Amino acid sequence: MGTMLSEVQFRSIVGSFHCQVQWGDCDPAGIIFYPTYFRWMDAACWALFAGVGYTAKRMRAEHLAMPLVSADCQFLYPAEQSDRCEVRSRIERFGDKSFVIAHEVQREDGMALAKGAETRVWGKFANGPGTRLRGLAIPEELKALFLAA
């Protein structure tokens, strides 16, 4: 049997998702409204998977899904309208059917704005979106796509 890539600390590639704080992302005080970070982390997760060939279009075609089961975020410094930011994301851990993605949000000048994590399940719809969804064992081939050199 080969070595399994379900290590406690997975040596992951790091994805980069660029974003900017828009007027609609702000609360009345003019600072970022906290759900924006969760939206960015979700988008960064999808971008990370697209970067290794698992685009949303491919996943729909293959009836694959990665539903979110847990999310957390620590808000470190308030972002303001027009700030340019980057979400740096990596796989922190692979389990049998679930995985954890760690996210760090920085302003373009390097100021740490937030850090968070998502736990997702790897799954497949019986007959496409809207049908029964079951968790699947994460293939070793998929894990290998995220392994840092």
What does this structure look like?
The chain has 149 residues and is an alpha+beta fold. The chain has a single domain, classed as Thiol Ester Dehydrase, Chain A (Roll), CATH 3.10.129. It has three helices and eight strands, in the order βααβββββββα. The chain has helices spanning 35-51, 56-61, 140-145, and strands spanning 14-20, 64-65, 68-75, 84-94, 98-107, 112-121, 123-125, 133-135. A five-stranded antiparallel beta sheet has the order 1-4-5-6-3. The chain has a three-stranded antiparallel beta sheet with strand order 2-7-8. Strand 7 (123-125) and strand 8 form a beta hairpin. The longest helix has 17 residues, at 35-51. The two termini are 22 Å apart. The model has no long low-confidence stretch (mean pLDDT 93).
Number of helical segments?
3
Give the strand order, joined by hyphens, for the main sheet.
1-4-5-6-3
What number of domains? Answer: 1
- In helices, the fraction of residues equals 10-25%
CATH topology name, in short, is Thiol Ester Dehydrase, Chain A
Radius of gyration (CA) equals 16 Å
Largest sheet: 5 strands, antiparallel
Taken in chain order, the helices and strands follow as EHHEEEEEEEH
Q: Please report the total strand number as a whole number.
A: 8
What is the architecture at the second tier of CATH? Roll
